[in-house]
Every structure is written in structure tokens, then in C-alpha cells.
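for the recovery benchmark. C-alpha cells below, seq after
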């Protein structure tokens, strides 16, 4: 398992254990819900007149995969996926009710934001213009993508490393992934609160 997948699995376990500590009911998503609907857990805080919520857990990531060690993890900047590597909808456009971003700190702390609010904020803040992102339509040439192989998909420019509040598509990777068709951006979690978007920390008492 890759370092990134290990970190994602660890973040999910940390959220699961934290919910159990708080005596909340938590149920993992099945494989279809996880892959197609983009959420990890159904959480019920056992508060009267509230419904269980679907949570998508996001582990801290690096600016570049080749960066080494936990010191390279981004504290406030997070990668947002509008479209995944196959050209399907990314996690931003999934069915989660909340996103829980694990912060790369010594203590286990998640910054939680309501998904609908976060999506609306990203739509306003991320420059999705043709002029900035140089969109083009291409054919999916990656046979690993099964149902998407041969289909037309929109991609963005690949010539920028750090797409702050704009979009990029990652370059062809002959070693591991082949052709990729994602649309991703970098946003800063601190900007949410500056713009009046409510977030809260989920952590041990």
C-alpha cells in the first residue's frame, strides 16, 4: 500500500475511533457508496430531531507525491477534486453531508465543514474560466478506466504545479497511473472562516 493510501486509511480509522469515543453510532460505507458516492461513514450523534450524516474523510496531503516525510504535509492548503482521474465526478461533487479534513498535527484534530456550503464556496472561489484553465475535450485512452475508456472528457492545463484557486489536470504517468483526467485545485481552509463559512474542530475532549 502506498504512503498516501496508508495516510488515508489512518485518517479514516482515527475518525472512526473518535466517533466511538464520543459514543456516536458510526457505520462504514460499502464499496459502491465509497467509490461512486464519495463518502466513508454514516454518523449518528444520537441527538433528537437530527438525522445521521454521511462523512467524507480527507487526509492531509503533500504538494507533490515525490515530497518525502510528514513534514511535507500541507497544514492549511488542501487539494479539492472536482473530477477524478477517470473523468467521473470528483469527491467535491459526491453525496457526503460533511467533509472532515484531518490536520497534520501531533493531536488528532479534524476540521469539519458542511458539504453543501463548501461546494458553494468552492464554486465562487475557484476560477473555472476557460481563459485561465485552457480546457479541452480529449478521449480517455486509459484501458484501466473500464467504463470510461474511449469516452470524451474535459481536462484542464497541465503546465502548472500549484493550482491555487484554479484548475489543473495531472500529467501522463507511464510508471504508475497512465493517462489521468482529473480536475483538481488547491484551496486554503483558513479562507473559509475569513469568508464567514462555519467550520468546527472534531477532537478528543
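predicted aa per position
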Amino acid at each position: 500500500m502506498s504512503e498516501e493510501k496508508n495516510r488515508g486509511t489512518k485518517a479514516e480509522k482515527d475518525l472512526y475511533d473518535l466517533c466511538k469515543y464520543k459514543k456516536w453510532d458510526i457505520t462504514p460505507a460499502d464499496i459502491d457508496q465509497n467509490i461512486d458516492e464519495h463518502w466513508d461513514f454514516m454518523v449518528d450523534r444520537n441527538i433528537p430531531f437530527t438525522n445521521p450524516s454521511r462523512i467524507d474523510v480527507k487526509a492531509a496531503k503533500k504538494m507533490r507525491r515525490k515530497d518525502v516525510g510528514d513534514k511535507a504535509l500541507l497544514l492549511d492548503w488542501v487539494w479539492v477534486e472536482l473530477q477524478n482521474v477517470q473523468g467521473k465526478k470528483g469527491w467535491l461533487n459526491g453525496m457526503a453531508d460533511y467533509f472532515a479534513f484531518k490536520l497534520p498535527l501531533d493531536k488528532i484534530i479534524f476540521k469539519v465543514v458542511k458539504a453543501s456550503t463548501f461546494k458553494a464556496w468552492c464554486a465562487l472561489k475557484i476560477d473555472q474560466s476557460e481563459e485561465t484553465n485552457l480546457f479541452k475535450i480529449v478521449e480517455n485512452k486509459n484501458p484501466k478506466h473500464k467504463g470510461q475508456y474511449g469516452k470524451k472528457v474535459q481536462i484542464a492545463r497541465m503546465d502548472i504545479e500549484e493550482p491555487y484557486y484554479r484548475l489543473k489536470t495531472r500529467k501522463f504517468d507511464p510508471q504508475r497511473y497512465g493517462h489521468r483526467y482529473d480536475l483538481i485545485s488547491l484551496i486554503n481552509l483558513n479562507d473559509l472562516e475569513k469568508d464567514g463559512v462555519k467550520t468546527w474542530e472534531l477532537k478528543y475532549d
